[in-house]
Amino acid sequence: MRIEACEGVSASRKHLVFTYYVTGHGFGHATRVVEVVRNLILAGHDVHVVTGAPDFVFTSEIQSPRLFIRKVLLDCGAVQADALTVDRLASLEKYSETAVKPRESILATEIEWLNSIKADLVVSDVVPVVCRAAADAGIRSVCVTNFSWDFIYAEYVMATGNHHRSIVWQWEAGYLNCSHIIAVNMWLYLAFMPGWIDGVLLLI
């Protein structure tokens, strides 16, 4: 986190610029993020939400000049053949096209943008590439989630004969760049990530 000494003001009370990256897969992640963003703004901070989710999920709940929405697709979830069936291979291929092949371009763009807004902290739910971008930009990052994409997609890789298995390694490497992981309720396989914190305990 970029925190500089400020005469008469403690670092913990300083106005901060948060960047919150939110996966656009479904509304669950976005609706969870709304409450976190709302409280950050109420505390007097600016929050830039970067997501592929619709704007209204955030703007209908938060009306504030401190909220900024940037529409960018940096990951994708499962491709479903129907309401109950996941097309595993199609999911892997879509992610490869969305975030693996253009990865270097994504990193360069995000590093430049994070520096341009003078971001103090990057928060992710739970876009892996931005943890690496934050690290390369010299900014600390935190993941707030109940699962990581490598856990979900590892089963897809095994079911499709190890197609695109490098994607899972890339995700794990990305997540390892974050400073902390705050695991929210009903978390799955997150203890391997740095600075693991049980988010439920933060409410006690």
TrEMBL record:
InterPro entries: GHMP_kinase_L-arabinokinase
Gene3D superfamilies according to UniProt: Glycogen Phosphorylase B (3.40.50.2000)
Protein name: L-arabinokinase
Taxonomic source organism: Salix viminalis (Common osier)
